[in-house]
Design a protein that fits this description.
By secondary structure, the chain is α+β, with helices and mostly antiparallel strands. Helices cover about 40% and strands about 10% of the residues. Strands 1-2 form a two-stranded antiparallel ribbon. The radius of gyration is 12 Å and the shape is globular. The two termini are about 15 Å apart. The mean pLDDT is about 95.
């Protein structure tokens, strides 16, 4: 859902599939998370699919 939402907003992103990408999985655990989605926008780490939080993070970077 996050990927589709960002695509609709025409925001470029990098997807890391932690089930097939060992480095991505290690990065996720190093950040302190054990489930997905985790979305990093600027210095914010957002969990789940929360439209207001995503929009606020994008607005803070002038990406909305």
């Amino acid at each position: 859902m996050v990927k589709g939402f960002l695509s609709l907003r025409k925001v470029e992103f990098v997807e890391k599939n932690v089930s097939t990408d060992l480095e991505g999985s290690v990065e996720l655990v190093a950040m302190g998370y054990d489930s997905t989605p985790v979305t990093v926008i600027g210095d914010r780490e957002l969990t789940g699919f929360n439209v207001p939080e995503i929009d606020a993070a994008l607005a803070a970077l002038n990406l909305e």
